[in-house]
Structure formats: structure tokens, C-alpha cells
Amino acid sequence: MRHSLPQSPQFYVTAPQPCPYLEGKVERKLFTALYGEDTKTLNDSLSQQGFRRSQNVLYRPTCAGCSACMSARIRTKDFTPSKSQKRVLRRNASLTREVKSPWANEEHFTLFQKYLGHRHADGGMADMDIFEFAAMIEETPVQSRVVEYYRETDTGTELVAACLTDVLEDGLSLVYSFFDPALDRNSLGSYIVLDHINMAISAKLSYVYLGFWVPGSPKMAYKAKYRPLEVFRGSVWQEVENVHTFSTADHPLELDPVSTQIAAIHLPTLSES
What is the mean pLDDT of the chain? Predict the structure, then answer.
């Protein structure tokens, strides 16, 4: 007997767990798997509706009574770097960029460990081994690239930053980035975002997707520095006119419970396999 996968994506909701951004809150995620021949279409469509990719899963928060966690993207055609961002670009002008297929290596993993040890030592990824790291980079059913940044040293070139990036139909999505924490003065995290904006502009892509933004969260504060910034809120992308009008208070959900949220998602038409 031949078994076939369902033609339409199936959505599921995770069990409640502590929210990593708002103390005392719990979070749940709405998610679906990426599989088959239409993964690019599904990834494009759901990314445009606030979803994020992790390996072969697309997800977004679906927390009862709270929508403080919002997907954010930069509109590239109207982006103008601030004075401080121009300084970051000048400071890193000597770095060279290489764009490669999504394959992990020991150099990546060494830099990744150094980054986690300094920035996220108590985070959920701190115990990730090289095999789990390789899975994070390599298990991608869509068009992904590893963007590497090198500096010249007396002994050759040194990897100082890297970013796993998805190429969408309308933009670049920063899935995960990491860099050498010893080079704090270089603001490499900001430089990665700025360089991706330049790459998107060169490729005539409209957006750089930054992942989720929670107003008031120190971990997320850097995302509000890129203008114009848009957030997915109330089922549409809205420009953030003034980041100070957003607070750490919960933003009421405009959607009904989970069943309605699933029904409200605009799914692409998937081809027959």
C-alpha cells in the first residue's frame, strides 16, 4: 500500500512553556513542517505572515491574550543608515564576505561556541554539540546560505562572523548569526544586519527579515534601530512610526483562539506530487 503525505500543511500547537522574553508569562507556538516539493512556496508565504524557520519547521507565537512578540522586517528601499550605523560600516570596511552553501565546519562551530559562551552561556543552545550545530545549519529544505565574514591577520584570514540566511522571494531572512565577542568594538552583529540590507538592495529584494521583536526586551532592542521597521501585527505588516509608543505591556490579540488563527492563515496553493 502506498502512503502519501498530506497535500496541505498540517498545523500544531506546542504545550505551554515559560516565555523567554516576558517574566511570569508562558508561551505557545503554532508550527508546521516543511517537506515535499513546495517547501520554498510555503516558506515564502508563511514568512510573509510572521512565521520563522528552524530547520524543517516554520513557527510563530500563539499566546493567549498576548501578542507582544512580533515578527519584524526592514523595508530596504527606504533604508538610510544612521550616523552610528555609518560608523559601523566604516569600522568593518576591511572585512571580506563569502557566501556559501549551508554546510557546517569546525571553524564555524568554534566561533559559535565562543559566541554562546560570552553572550548566551545560560541559554537553551549552550549545550549544543557539533552534530546538533551541523543539523541547525544543514537541515534546510529551502534556499539557504551561510554568509561568512573574514578579517586579514598576520597569519592569513580569520573567520569573525557568520550568518545562516534564507533567500525568500521578497527578501533575506536572518535565521541565526554569531560572531567573535572579542571584537565588541566592531559591532559585528549590527554589521551583519547592515551588510544583509546592502545585499538585499543589490539583489532588488524588498525586505530583510529580523525574526521576532519584543518591545522593551534588552535582547531585542537592536532591531528597533533599523528604519523603516515593520512588524506583523493584527494579521498585517505595519510600519513602526515611533518605537517609544510600544511598551513591554501585552498587545491584545486581534485574532480569536487557536482554531481561528489557523483558519486565518493564507496558505499557498500546493501542487500535486
Answer: 86
